[in-house]
Structures are given as C-alpha cells and as structure tokens.
Amino acid sequence: MFKLVLILLVAGLVATPGAWSQTDIVTTKVIGPEFPGKYKHPASFTELQNGDLYLAYYGGGGEYEDDSKVWGMRLRKGSKKWTKPVIIADTPFLSEGNPVVWQAPDGLVWLFYVQRYGETWSDSRIKAKISKDGAHTWSDSMMIAFDNGMMVRGHPIVLNNGDYLLGVYHETGRDRENVGKDTTSVFLRYNKQTHEWVETDRCYSRLGNLQPAPAQIDDNYLIAYARRGGGYDPIPDGWIVRMESRDGGNTWSNGADSQFPNPNAAVEFKKLKNGHLILVYNDSMSDRTPLTVSISTDNDTTWPYKRNIGEGDHDFAYPVAIQTQDEKIHVIYTRDGRSTIMHAVFDEQAIMNYTK
Questions:
Q1: What is the CA radius of gyration of the chain?
Q2: CA 52 → CA 46, 73, 102, distances in Å?
Q3: Within-domain flag for 79
Q4: Residue 89 is part of which domain span?
Q5: Using one digit for the tens of pLDDT, what is the confidence trace for 51-98?
Q6: Of 12, 50, 59, 97, whose Cβ has the fewest other Cβ atoms within 10 Å?
Q7: C-alpha closest to that of 224 among 210, 239, 214, 211
C-alpha cells in the first residue's frame, strides 16, 4: 500500500496536506451569514503589489435595503485567514452596490461602486474612490458616470497602449425582476491627463446586455462577453452576449448571441498571462448552477477545455477571476442565497487536463 501511494504522489494524482497538485481546485469560504448583515453580494477582489489579496462586497439586510454598505477585507500574503470586514463606502440615506476593487499599474487602488437613488438599479450612478496606501485608507468619493442607470460590475483592463478600459452598463426598466431590452453595455476609457472616464458607444442586443467583461487580443482587436437581459424565467435561447471592437476599444459592435448559455447571470472573461482566454459562467439556461470554467487557447475560436468548479444544489453567482503573480487562477463567487462568499484557487492545468 505504501508503495502504491508513493507512486501516486510522484505522478501528482494524490495531494498531501500542504502540497499542490496541478489538478487541484482548492475552495474555501471567505465569509458567510455569521457576520452581521446576511446579504453579501456581489464581491470583487484584486492582488495588491505586496502580494495581499483585497476583497470588497456590498452587504446589509438585502439587495434593495437602504442599510447596504461596501465592506473591505484583506488576505495578507502567506495568511489563510481574511481580516474582519470594515466599511469602506457608506452614504447616509442611500444604498451602495456592486463594488469593484482593482490596483492599477501605477499603484493606485481603485474602488468603483454603484449608488442607487431610487427604487430600482435603473436609478443608479457610478462612483469611485482611490487609495494610495494599498487599500488601507480611501479618498472621498467622486462620480465617474452621471447618467441615471449607469452601473459597474467587472475589473478594468490595461490596454496595450497603456490606457485603462472599464466595462460598465446602462440599465433600463422599472421591474426589479426584468432587465429592459434596451439595457446596453458601455466602455469607459480613462484619460490619465484629465483623470476622466470617457464613454464609448453603447452596444445593443436582442434581449439587452449588461455587465460586459472585455479582453484585448491584439492592438486593434478586443472581445467582450456580457450577461443577457430579460427576466429570470427559463428561456430556450438565453445566450451570453458577445461583442467586439476592431479599433482598439474605441468603438464596439452590437451584441450577438454566443455559444454559451446564460440564465440571466453575471459572467467573467479574462486574458491569462500566456494569452489564453478564460470564461467563467453558469452552464445552464435556467439556473445559476453549475459554475463552469472554460479555456480557449486560440483567441476565442474554440473552447475545448471545460470543468465545473461549483455544482449541485446551490446557486453560484457573480464570479470574478484574477491571475496572481504565481500564475494561479483565483475565482470568487457568492453562494447560498447571496449570503456566502467563496474562493477557489487552481492552476490552468486543473481545467485543461480534466476529463469526466
């Protein structure tokens, strides 16, 4: 028996405590309903230059409760325990939502978030704060998108020319259970001289689209995947929406149905350091389960690699992915009625070498 285990260990098929196998997916809970304010959704995180992970979520009594605030947590490099959440954005008499935290190449840490001024998310605008000390303290807030209905969900990307590009969206409709068909994805480009985020054209699609996640293929060609609009009842043709730019992200096509199903749920799309593309989504037309990771090695032409990282009788929502300095892929998502934040860590080979 000892010899068999030794052979398996050498082959990388069995993981020992503290060891890491390329086929492992290690999933842990960040925080759950044990911390006051059951609602914790959605979450975003970034790797800081010192190797810490910093996470932000909005929480309170519920999605539309006025007590919702943006909270921040830190996982110090080498630690296995996240710090206790602290409030990093809270406006009297108004509720916050959808925080996005991201460290730019110049070291500034950006916190983008939504502030709701009415009964639905269609009454929202996008605000931001910055930190100059690694997310320990934050500036006052500033408005970066003034139009009613503007919202944010995903990380900016750094374009090949050094500009920042942030995918946002303009949500319409007064029904809390239905996203209007004229909801559109938009992209904000950061002007480093004026410190303004300048809007591109808006991308329309058959059911509406929102929460775009862009990736740059070459200097001119960019792709974005976005959540579809509509309601939450199952439909047979609710696909993730795909759009593209051929001029470096200045103008964009309207959205078209992709090959991937979408139950009206957020998706994540990123370019890895080796040039491969990763898509994290719910592989279902009706439910936010399973949570699936797919990889393309040929610039979105084919997606031959796929593995579920969350499945079963749970809801897996709002995935956010980063690739850290050690090239491991980290995905966070919410679960259990938006009350729990989960953290999955794996190598790319855990997806590419997977067979059912």
A1: 20
A2: 8, 10, 12
A3: yes
A4: 25-148
A5: 999 999 999 887 877 788 999 999 999 999 999 999 999 999 889 999
A6: 50
A7: 214
pLDDT at 111 exceeding the cut of 50: yes
Task: Flag whether 297 is in a domain.
Answer: no
Residue 51: which CATH number? 2.120.10.10
Query: Residue 182: CA atoms inside 13 Å, Cβ hemisphere, count?
Result: 5
Cβ-contact 211, 227 below 8 angstroms = yes
Q: What is the pLDDT of residues 151-202, one digit of tens each?
A: 999 999 999 999 999 999 999 988 888 899 999 999 999 988 899 999 999 9
Place of tokens 């959704």: 41
Q: Give the separation between CA 60 and CA 175, rounded to whole angstroms.
A: 22
The pLDDT tens digits for 312-340 are: 988 999 999 999 999 999 999 999 999 99
Dihedral of the CA atoms 267, 227, 156, 270 (nearest 10)?
A: 40
136 vs 114: CA distance, rounded Å = 21
Instruction: Give the per-residue pLDDT at 21.
Output: 65
Q: Is 7 left (phi over 0), alpha (psi -120 to 50) or beta?
A: alpha
Sheet holding 305-310, edge to edge: 268-271, 277-282, 291-296, 305-310
Distance CA 283, CA 263 (A): 8
Mean pLDDT of the chain: 92
Q: Is residue 83 part of a domain?
A: yes
Question: Is residue 133 in a domain?
Answer: yes
Please tell me the total count of domains within the chain. Answer: 1
